[in-house]
Specification:
Number of domains: 2
CATH class of the largest domain: Alpha Beta
Largest sheet: 4 strands, parallel
Strand content: 5-15%
Radius of gyration: 17 Å
Helix content: 40-55%
Shape: globular
């Protein structure tokens, strides 16, 4: 099994989910005391989150590139960026990095297509919902993405940063997400993408009427498969 490098910390809650998911995949696949070969770089999210709000994306990209290079130098053979939003900077992050990046949007799009679906509703940070990098990646796979209205996007984003990234799950916030999902289904969505790695804390197949695609699980599965290819 190849060594997986996880560039995480955005948020720490998300990175914990990645670690647990990859360990569970190794346990189910190989049994015994098997666990994945991992290198984890977990950055401090607070200053990065502030840079995001200020639009200092070039500075963030330079930091991610340094960390990606360090993971490769430390022996990582497959790279995973444990956040949806930062895939906005994937090309800059991978400059000078020779190991492959498992892209979260590709892993998710492939799962949606395999299920015979084509109109995903995307719930994510405001950056992922408003900017084209995720929707364009989906379009390359033949998917047509539906996003919430502007007011709902603001509240979705607030809950992510003020609650879910802190591992806080409030009943009223869960209810809000459920209502947004219902609206998007009424608008024609045939599935819901949890396009922020923390949204799985409030939405899942049990409280959404259409198939739910958890990007964290799908990303981990794709990374695990890539690590086990010869």
């Amino acid at each position: 099994m190849k060594r997986i490098g996880i560039l995480g910390g955005m948020s720490a809650t998300s990175t914990q989910l990645y670690y647990a998911s990859l360990c569970e995949l190794a346990k189910r696949s190989f049994g015994g005391l098997n666990s994945p070969e991992l290198l984890i770089c977990s950055v401090n999210f607070d200053p990065i989150a502030k840079q995001m709000e200020l639009g200092e994306w070039d500075s963030i990209a330079a930091r991610l590139n340094r960390e990606a290079r360090d993971l490769e130098a430390a022996g990582a053979e497959v790279l995973v960026l444990a956040t949806n939003t930062m895939h906005k900077l994937a090309d800059q992050m991978m400059q000078g990095v020779s190991i492959p990046l498992v892209h979260i949007a590709d892993a998710t799009a492939q799962a949606i297509k395999a299920a015979g679906l084509s109109n995903p509703a995307l719930l994510a940070t405001k950056f992922t919902m408003q900017e084209p990098f995720y929707r364009e990646r989906f379009a390359q796979h033949g998917l047509s993405t539906i996003t919430p209205n502007e007011d709902d996007q603001v509240e979705i984003n607030r809950i992510i940063f003020e609650e879910l990234c802190r591992n806080e799950v409030l009943p009223e916030s869960r209810a809000f997400y459920e209502t947004v999902a219902e609206k998007l289904i009424a608008e024609g969505a045939d599935c819901v993408v949890l396009g922020c790695t923390e949204i799985c804390l409030v939405l899942n197949d049990e409280n959404v009427a259409v198939p739910v695609f958890d990007t964290t699980v799908l990303h981990c599965t794709a990374a695990f498969e890539a690590a086990n290819q010869s």
